[in-house]
Amino acid sequence: MDLGQRQQAFNRLQELHAPSLHRYACSLTRDNARAQDIVQETLLKVWQHPHLLDEPPEQLRGWLFTVARNLVIDQSRSGYSQHEFAAEQLPEQSVADQADQIFNELLVREALSSLSEDHRQVVVRAYYYAHSVEQIAADLAIPSGTVKSRLHYGMRSLKLALEEKGVGR
């Protein structure tokens, strides 16, 4: 049987038996969507066994209904019906533990407090507020070279303070 003949035989079988197979599956599952899945899986089994299409479609009725019944039984025994169910509302989303982040923030804050006021002002404005060197110089009324110098030495001191606390080793 070539592919065209196979498709024709399959279509004839589907037209003849799919509606009654669907009603039967609905009576077993009490769920239209599951019944449609059962019918599709049953017909897929026919397609996967092309020798069945050589038989007259009327003679396959019993086989089709047996396959459908077995699929319903298999589904009822599987996790599909025992453990999986639709939820009206999704459970809360899990949130990542923030303890490490909070601890790191405390370490940085403590290390920043060990800097001189001049160095701390420049570092905070540059890294926390993302101000440019020129903007910091204008805000503090100091030359931009002084800002760069304080930023360099402030970051060096901050790094040393964090290393003393065990960060970055």
CATH class designation of the largest domain: Mainly Alpha
The largest sheet, given as strand count, sense and whether it forms a barrel, is: none
Strand content: under 5%
What are the segments in which pLDDT stays under 50 over at least 5 consecutive residues?
none
What percent of the residues sit in helical stretches (DSSP H or I)? over 70%
> End-to-end span in angstroms?
74 Å
What is CATH's topology name of the largest domain?
Rna Polymerase Sigma Factor, Chain: A
Shape: rod-shaped
Structure description:
72% of the residues lie in helices and 0% in strands. It has 169 residues and is mainly alpha-helical. It contains 8 helices and no strands. The protein has 2 domains: 3-81, Orthogonal Bundle (Rna Polymerase Sigma Factor, Chain: A), CATH 1.10.1740; 99-164, Arc Repressor Mutant, subunit A.
Summarize the structure.
This protein is mainly alpha-helical and 169 residues long.
SSE diagram, text form:
Blueprint: H1 3-29, H2 32-48, H3 61-77, H4 79-82, H5 99-113, H6 117-128, H7 133-140, H8 144-164
Pfam families: Sigma70_r2 (PF04542), Sigma70_r4 (PF04545)
Organism: Glutamicibacter uratoxydans (Arthrobacter uratoxydans)
GO molecular function: DNA binding; sigma factor activity
Which characteristics define this entry?
169 residues; mainly alpha; Arc Repressor Mutant, subunit A
